[in-house]
């Protein structure tokens, strides 16, 4: 059966990129799949160990999940550190993955910066924990933004190497199941996960620089629309967003070499759930002074109810805390079954 897993880090402000690239897709997948949505608090300490108000950050991501429309009764919402299998399986994957694989990760290179020797070992091993998150539930589909693509390829590599290296033991333990990877089908224990990276919003860019992605860690608050921004802040940030002086083109081709225009049109298209070409057919030939207020209205119409709902959840976090506790129990039951199998495959004695 298809199973979806995805995670969001409880660091910094959730923004429009997180919403359009990930959370809104989480909501849509609930109709067709069994889903686990995780607040990845173990990942949150990889780049910076001591976090400001980590409990508050975890609750805030959970509030965003619920406010956006994730149903924690039908699906599973939890925080990662509560289910010990994540850390346990990550350790085993640290022994499956090669150092060279980790060194090639562009996100590691970016986050570690020049002083790589001084980055935490956890930051290097980050993708191995991410593979553990997904494979602990033997998830088949992972909705993410474009920036996570390389990490998901590594997850596939880890699953394939584990399946290959332990093939005989998996078979002998009767744990082999059919696995499909693209066209090929084989047998193994872990699925070869499909990334779900589709639509016009897989990579929302900074409002101040069309060459940088919108990010929680950008020092300029004007670079992003936070999920918790009020209507005035949203309108102001869109008004101040960088653009070129030309009118909007009427065809997609006209967005080439115009990264800021392309980004704003992409945001409009994603929010309106319309193709970009359709948006251009309507706004082609018009100035940004006309387009920006329309975009601001659209953004406020979608984000304001979500942020109001988030505030309502956060005013009394007891519901959020209960959701996370219940989610961890249900996730833990799936995780325990996987860890039993994995321990048998590797050869660890267990209860
Ligand atoms: P994180 O917390 O940085 O981001 C959460 C989700 O938002 C997407 N995203 C974007 N999408 C479009 N445009 C943007 N500018 C943008 N910025 C962020 C991200 O791609 C992501 O889907 N490593 C992950 C968390 C993680 C995870 C996992 C994800 C941990 N374990 C297992 C999937 C499966 C991360 O740091 O996401």
UniProtKB/TrEMBL annotation:
It catalyses: tRNA(Trp) + L-tryptophan + ATP = L-tryptophyl-tRNA(Trp) + AMP + diphosphate + H(+). It is an enzyme of class 6 (ligase). It is found in: Cytoplasm. L-tryptophan binds at residue 133. Signal peptide: none annotated. A motif ('HIGH' region) lies at residues 10-18. Its EC number is 6.1.1.2. Homodimer. This is Tryptophan--tRNA ligase. The gene is trpS.
């Amino acid at each position: 059966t298809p199973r979806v897993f995805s995670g969001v880090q409880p660091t910094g402000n959730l923004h429009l990129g997180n919403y359009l690239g990930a959370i809104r897709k989480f909501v849509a997948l609930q109709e067709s799949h069994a889903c686990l949505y995780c607040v990845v608090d173990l990942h949150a300490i990889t780049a910076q160990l001591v976090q400001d108000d980590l409990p508050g950050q975890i609750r805030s991501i959970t509030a965003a999940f619920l406010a956006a429309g994730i149903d924690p009764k039908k699906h599973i919402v939890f925080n990662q550190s509560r289910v010990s299998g994540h850390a346990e399986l990550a350790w085993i994957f640290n022994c499956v993955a090669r150092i060279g694989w980790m060194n090639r990760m562009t996100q590691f290179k970016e986050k570690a910066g020049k002083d790589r020797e001084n980055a935490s070992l956890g930051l290097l091993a980050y993708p191995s924990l991410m593979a553990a998150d997904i494979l602990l539930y033997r998830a088949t589909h992972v909705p993410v933004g474009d920036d996570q693509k390389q990490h998901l390829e590594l997850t596939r590599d880890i699953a394939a190497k584990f399946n290959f290296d332990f093939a005989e033991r998996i078979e002998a333990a009767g744990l082999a199941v059919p696995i499909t990877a693209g066209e090929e089908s084989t047998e193994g224990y872990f699925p070869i996960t499909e990334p779900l990276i589709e639509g016009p919003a897989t990579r929302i860019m900074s409002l101040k620089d069309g060459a940088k992605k919108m990010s929680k860690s950008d020092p300029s608050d004007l670079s992003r629309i936070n999920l918790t921004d009020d209507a005035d802040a949203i309108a102001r940030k869109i008004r101040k967003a960088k653009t070129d002086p030309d009118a909007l083109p009427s065809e997609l081709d006209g967005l080439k070499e115009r990264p800021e225009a392309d980004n704003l049109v992409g945001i409009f298209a994603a929010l309106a759930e319309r193709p970009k070409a359709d948006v251009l057919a309507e706004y082609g030939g018009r100035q940004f002074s006309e387009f920006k207020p329309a975009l601001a209205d659209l953004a406020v119409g979608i984000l304001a109810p979500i942020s109001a709902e988030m505030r309502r959840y956060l005013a009394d976090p007891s519901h959020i805390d209960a959701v996370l506790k219940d989610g961890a129990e249900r996730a833990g039951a799936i995780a325990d079954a996987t860890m039993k199998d994995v321990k048998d495959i590797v050869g660890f004695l267990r209860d």
